[in-house]
Amino acid sequence: MSEGLPTNRLGDMSRGREFLRLYQANERRIFGFILALVPQWSEAEDLLQETTMTLWSKFDTFEPGTDFAAWALCVARYRVMNHRRKKRHQHVQFSDEVLEALDERVRSAASGLDTLRDALGNCLRKLPERDRELIHLRYEYDATTRSVAQRVGRSVDAVYKALNRIHVQLLYCIRRTLAAERSA
Amino acid sequence: MIDRPTEHSQFFELLGALREGALTNEQFAQLDRFLADDPAVRQLYVEYMLLCAELRHYHGMSETADLAILPGGPADVPPSSLQVAAATETQGIPTILDELLERDRAVAARRAAEEARQRADAHREAIRRAADDALERFKEQERHRREELAYREYLARRRQLAVSVFAVGVLLVSGVLVWVSRLPVRTTFSPVPATPAVPPVVATITRSSNAVWDRTDVSTAQGTALRASSLFLMQGLIQMVFEGGSEVLVQAPAVLRLESADQVFLHSGAVSVSIGEDSTGFIVRTPTGTVVDYGTEFGVIVRQTGETEALVYQGKVGIRSGSDPVRSVASTILVEGQAGAVDAAGNVVSRRYLPGQIVREMPQEPAFGVPGRRLDLADVIGAGNGFGTGAATSAISPVTGRYVMPVESDRHGTHQYVVVPWNRYVDGVFVPDGTRSQIVSSVGHTFADCPITNNIYYLDITNVGDAGVGRQMLSGQAYGSPDRPCILMHANLGITFDLAEIASLNPGLRIERFCSAYGVSESATNRPCNADFWVLVDGRVRFSRTGVKVKGIAGQIDVELADTDRFLTLITTDGGDADFPAGLRATDSDWCVFVEPNLELAPPAVSDL
Fold first, then answer.
1. Shortest CB distance from B280 goes to which of A58, A60, A135?
2. C-alpha–C-alpha distance, residues B176 and B171, integer Å
3. Closest residue of B to A164, CA-based?
4. Beta strands in B68-160 (DSSP E)
5. What residue of A is the nearest CA neighbor of B202?
6. How far is Cα A56 from Cα A71, in angstroms, rounded to an integer?
7. ipTM, 2 decimals?
8. CA B94 to CA B60: how far, in whole Å?
9. CA separation for the pair A14, A26 (Å, rounded)
10. Over the stretch B336-373, which tens digit does the pLDDT of each residue have?
């Protein structure tokens, strides 16, 4: 039995299901929050896993019916702060002021993730086939811009620039879509 | 408003490099500046990163959703397998884009079919939400009302304490007698009735000192489990460890609500918080602000005025306006050695860092000052809060107002009243001399009967300890230890305490009286002494004893104080002796001391409520 797990709940399957239901409904929000504060992809993935384990081990203290997302983001923030402390000598980090400002901003933005997801689906459909393919390949597990370049037979630089352009296109397409929905 | 991508081309280049993990340190610093300078850029950044996170889900990680519906899915596996699940999740099988689009189309079709039902649901949901909101508001008002009632009940109980103690004593004696008389008789107990559901345990008491809750159903003993509830610590200190791992020391008088394993709502009073390595962090909410730790040790005070002040002993904290830990109007980050506050108007402002305001550690030995009951004024001179946080063998210079080590040397006064900004409890200091109008407070109160002195002082205003001038003797008893504090005011010194500030950090209590013994210490030379003692309240003499010419005799001072009294002044003067040509001053051998000087704290009279 792992240390720190809520042992008295181990036999409580409904509790476990409840955790997974809440976690899966909020996993994207948690990861987006972490990635915005720690924009190094692999470190953000590690932090998501740590956060998941902490959420589960502390799930006994979560009061059913209260805001799971707010609780989860608080836990994620502590993992991020611990991570910053450990890594402060290894690589540059956002300043405290920027982090604090981003913290508030991303919490607010993450609450509208469902509408962003719908808009993203529409915007992906609007992309030319070739651009969709690039995005798809780039976000495959373990893919890099270099591996994508090899698969499509283009230079790394060309793929890099194309990915930059597509991301910005998607970003502004989503913005326009959401603005139109708001004004409708 | 939607701006154009070309307006941020440089910024997007940085984001591209960031996404690919190719950002240099210089570029990262540039990105940080962009984000610091412009809220619109911050918004773009956040949207961009959320987009990347979503794309990760849409493509590489699309297996995640399926995990939930695996037969005997993750809910049924041991929790440790979550790690495996999470690892599996990051290695999910990629989804073909066409399939994704097909799925989107199918979803859109289903949505259209369900649109009418959703509209009806939305209508019902709106009604339910409105009802829920109303219920929440009502609950909040109810909670405030109950806390207010609990507080008033405590005040009434406190006044009846003496009677209760006596009554309990009588009952105990009677109980023992009855028990002894019925000893052979076996008692049959009725079944214990079913207890209602109780809130979860969120903290456990680890230590306490002179602690008294307002409730008798909660113990102050070590190991007592504390449930999520509202508590009022009337007196003393309680140290507790929360389930989340954080250690919190509560200083009376404090009204607080233990909200969860890592959160407390402090209505009034002071707490210090220490975050352990394994802690999930801690949040202190207050009526005006929220203090969020970033792995640290810090203190929080909620004053009578409603102001929330945070002090950082180690690490960092964020302080935000409003009680909502997520949303706020204003916020700032404080680092070690800084203090900040949310004032009653909701502004986040900086404050002078005065760490002695809050008790950070439990007292190691019986201390004289007891939070909620007795405030030690000698400790205040040592930069403390009156409950043992000050330093012994420390002093305040009567001419500069600075915190100094006491020095023995004849020096002249300046005829100035000097304010002491670094000590919130001390208004100011001076060298008394009636040749001019003697000011005794920062608002201009004067000491009309101030005698003429030689305007010379020999020692700074000193909180006596073992070092320096050492302990002082009065009536055969040594003073100058934590349990027997002593202010040494060799003749011709004056100090004024700010009673309003002291009351501010002791919300819900009133300062009932000033009590102290006084005299000329036996530690002085064997030459004769002649000194005067004065106690003033708002410039009016409330106690005086002039011409004390015998050493080692203790007299008593007991000055009743009213809520409207603002300044308490202690003065010693040289008895009006002349300076001798041989070099002996009028102040010679005038080792004046106030021993066990204290302010008695008590709840307000019921008639005042």
1. A58
2. 8
3. B16
4. none
5. A61
6. 12
7. 0.91
8. 5
9. 18
10. 899 999 988 888 899 999 988 899 988 876 789 999 89
